[in-house]
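Lab notebook: predicted structure, single chain.

Context: the supervisor wants predicted structures on file for every construct in the current expression panel, including those that have not yet been purified. This is the next one on the list. No modifications to the sequence; it matches the entry in the shared construct table.
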Amino acid sequence: MAMYIEYKLSDIENIIPEIIQNLHSNIVLFEGEMGAGKTTLIKSLVKQMGSSDEVSSPTFSLVNEYLLPDNQKIYHFDLYRLEDEEEALDFGIEEYLYDKNSWVFIEWFKIIEPILPKNSQKIRIIVKNSDTRILEIL
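Prediction complete. Output recorded below exactly as produced.
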């Protein structure tokens, strides 16, 4: 069942504990239009999960890695620039998807949807207005 959270961009830190509490998969897929706040949300998640690493969009590198205090890792993908599923397979995305000891956060995941594990969880960000978003946890 979907869960909805409405929030102002300035209050994003306050909704993170509720999001984390409602994650049932280590693979989280972020959906939303360009500029909706996917990377901003991921930055807040990574920080509140305990990483002190600097979070940035992996648009050009495809993946960024963040270390958590318990030596777990978060892999943050931005697949916007991929042409097809084959490109993802070529750089070994399956190794990340089936690593049960790490978190995998993926922006622009539609191109690899056929190879995603069934237990992946989606978070949709809907732009209500310039400073308000609706988060849908599916």
